[in-house]
Specification:
Largest sheet: none
Number of strands: 0
Number of helices: 2
Distance between the termini: 14 Å
Helix content: 40-55%
Structural class: mainly alpha
Strand content: under 5%
């Protein structure tokens, strides 16, 4: 066991606002593809493709566009959370706890 005293986690230091932003960015990428009546039709067509097809291609581009900033915000939130709890900003990949005991 380590000689370093454990500091209780300060709940105020958890960046919840950033995680809400991540959820708001990912919600359309999850909800819109599941809402089939929204795009289950043929009109309007685009370059000869019925709406059903080109809208799904548009959803792919939109999901990527929303997922990249969500990843960046989540990475920043995780980094801030680790620093607030006295951990290194990046995990060392050993899966060891702060006490040095493997999990």
């Amino acid at each position: 066991m380590s000689d370093v005293p454990r500091r209780p986690a300060d709940r105020r230091s958890v960046p919840r606002g950033r995680w809400l932003i991540v959820a708001a960015l990912l919600a359309p990428a999850v909800v819109l593809p599941l809402w089939v009546p929204l795009y289950d039709r043929e009109d309007p067509s685009f370059l000869g493709f019925p709406f059903y097809y080109w809208f799904q291609f548009l959803l792919i581009v939109g999901a990527v566009t929303l997922t990249v900033p969500a990843y960046l915000v989540a990475t920043g939130a995780d980094r801030a959370h680790r620093l607030a709890h006295g951990l290194p900003p990046e995990p060392d990949g050993t899966a060891a706890s702060r006490d040095g005991e493997p999990r």
